[in-house]
Write a structure and sequence with these properties.
By secondary structure, the chain is α+β, with helices and mostly antiparallel strands. It has two domains: about 5-235, Aminopeptidase (3-Layer(aba) Sandwich), CATH 3.40.630.10; about 250-325, Beta Barrel (OB fold (Dihydrolipoamide Acetyltransferase, E2P)). It is built from six helices and 20 strands. The protein has helices at about 60-70, 90-95, 120-135, 160-175, 190-200, 215-235, and strands spanning about 5, 10, 15-25, 30-40, 45-50, 80-85, 140-145, 150-155, 180, 205-210, 250, 250-255, 260-265, 275, 280-285, 290-295, 300-305, 310, 315-320, 325. The strands form four sheets. A ten-stranded mixed beta sheet has the order 3-4-6-5-7-10-8-9-11-20, sandwiched between helices. It has a four-stranded antiparallel beta sheet with strand order 12-19-17-14, with no helix packed on it. Strands 16-15-13-18 form a four-stranded antiparallel beta sheet, with no helix packed on it. A hairpin with a 2-residue loop joins strand 1 (about 5) and strand 2. Helix 1 (about 60-70) packs across helix 6 (about 215-235) and helix 4 packs across helix 6 (about 215-235). The radius of gyration is 20 Å and the shape is globular. The two termini are about 30 Å apart. The structure holds zinc ion.
C-alpha cells in the first residue's frame, strides 16, 4: 500500500495514528491545525477519506466518524481510513457555518474547492485540504446536516465509467431513500465533485441529521452503521453488505425561497413525498392573522425544510428533490 501522509499523521500498517494538518495561521500567529486520524489495516485495500464539519455548525458527521472509527477492528481492516472530523475548525469553534475570519468573502468551504494557495483564508485552507485528499484517498464521504433531526438524503458523483459506478455502489450501501446522482455541472466547488471529476476519486455527500438543538443520537447511530456498510461495499470489512430497500433517485433539486416574511408554521417533514401545489406551511402576521398558505412550486421529496417559526422574505423555505424514481437494480 502507498504511504499515507496527511500533515503530521502518517499511516502505519495495523495501527491508529493521529496528527494535525496545518491549513492557516491565526491573528495571534498560532497555526490553524485540523485533527487527522489514520486507521490503517494490516492488508491492502482502498483508502477511504472522511470529512466532517466542512460547515462548522453541522456536527453530526464528527460524531458519526468517531462512532464508526470506534467500531472498527483494526486487525481485520483492509485498506485505510483517513478521517478529518472537523474540517472548518475556526467555524466549528464558534458554532458557525463559515469561519468568523471570513467577514468580507462569504467563505463557504464547500464551494471553493480545489482552493487557491493565493486566495482568501477559506480558499487557502481548501487548497491544503484538497492536496492531502487527492494525494492519499481513493474514495470519500463528506458529512452535512440541515435544520431537522429527521434529515436523511445523499448525493453521489454521477460520472461515466468506473468512478461513477463506484460512487453509486457507495451511495446504495449508504442507502438513504432520497439520493441524488449529481452531474458534474452541479456543486462544482464541492470537494467530492472536484475530486471525482479531476482526480477520479468517487464520493458521497450525506445530509445526516440536524444542527444545533436538532442534533440527536439516532442520526449518529444510524449514520455510523451506514458508513460501516459503505466500508463493506468497498471490500474494507469482510461482512455481508446490507441491501437498503426503497432507494429513489431524484433528477435534481430545487431551493425554494419565500417571497414574504412572517410567523411561519411548517407542515411537512424531511423524507415526505409532496405534490406540486401542496400546502407546505402557513404564514401569520404579527397580529396573529393568517396571511398566506405557502404551496410547493414543485413535487418530489422534501429534503430539507425551514422549521420556522420566524421567516424573513427571501429565506429558504424548502429544498425539494425532483422527479423521484426507484433506483435501478445494481
Ligand atoms: Zn452543510
Amino acid at each position: 500500500m502507498k504511504q499515507i501522509q496527511v500533515g503530521t499523521a502518517r499511516g502505519q500498517a495495523g495501527a491508529r495514528t493521529e496528527g494535525v494538518l496545518k491549513v492557516g495561521v491565526l491573528p495571534d500567529a498560532r497555526p490553524v491545525e485540523l485533527p487527522v486520524i489514520v486507521m490503517q489495516g494490516p492488508g491492502d485495500g482502498p483508502v477511504l477519506w472522511l470529512q466532517g464539519c466542512i460547515h462548522g455548525n453541522e456536527q453530526c458527521g464528527t460524531f458519526v466518524i468517531h462512532r464508526f472509527l470506534a467500531g472498527l477492528d483494526l486487525s481485520k481492516l483492509k485498506g485505510a481510513v483517513i478521517a478529518l472530523p472537523v474540517l472548518n475548525l475556526t467555524a466549528f469553534q464558534f458554532n458557525r457555518r463559515t469561519s468568523p475570519f471570513e467577514i468580507y468573502h462569504g467563505g463557504d468551504l464547500n464551494r471553493v474547492f480545489p482552493g487557491d494557495p493565493g486566495g482568501n483564508f477559506t480558499q487557502q485552507m481548501a487548497h491544503v485540504i484538497f492536496q492531502a485528499l487527492v494525494g492519499n484517498a481513493d474514495c470519500m464521504v463528506d458529512f452535512h446536516t440541515a435544520h431537522l433531526k429527521e434529515t436523511r438524503w445523499a448525493l453521489f458523483t454521477n460520472l461515466p465509467g468506473a468512478v461513477g459506478k463506484r460512487a453509486e455502489r457507495m451511495a446504495r450501501a449508504w442507502g438513504y431513500v432520497p439520493t441524488f446522482p449529481t452531474p458534474p455541472t452541479t456543486l462544482t466547488g464541492a470537494a467530492y465533485m472536484q475530486a471525482a471529476t479531476k482526480h477520479g476519486i468517487p464520493g458521497l455527500i450525506v445530509e445526516c441529521g440536524g444542527k444545533g438543538p436538532a442534533f440527536d443520537e439516532a442520526a449518529v447511530a444510524d449514520g455510523a452503521e451506514r458508513l460501516r456498510n459503505v466500508a463493506r461495499a468497498l471490500g474494507m470489512i469482510e461482512e455481508p453488505v446490507t441491501r437498503h430497500e426503497g432507494v429513489h433517485y431524484v433528477s435534481d433539486f430545487a431551493w425554494v425561497r419565500g417571497r414574504s416574511g412572517g410567523l411561519y408554521r411548517n407542515l411537512v417533514e424531511p423524507g415526505q413525498r409532496i405534490k406540486k401545489g401542496q400546502v407546505i406551511g402557513k404564514l401569520f402576521d404579527i397580529f396573529g392573522k393568517p396571511r398566506e398558505s405557502v404551496r410547493a412550486p414543485e413535487g418530489g421529496f422534501v429534503l430539507t425544510v425551514n422549521p420556522g417559526p420566524l421567516l424573513i422574505s427571501g429565506d429558504t423555505l424548502i429544498h425539494i428533490g425532483l422527479n423521484p424514481r426507484p433506483a435501478p437494480a445494481l
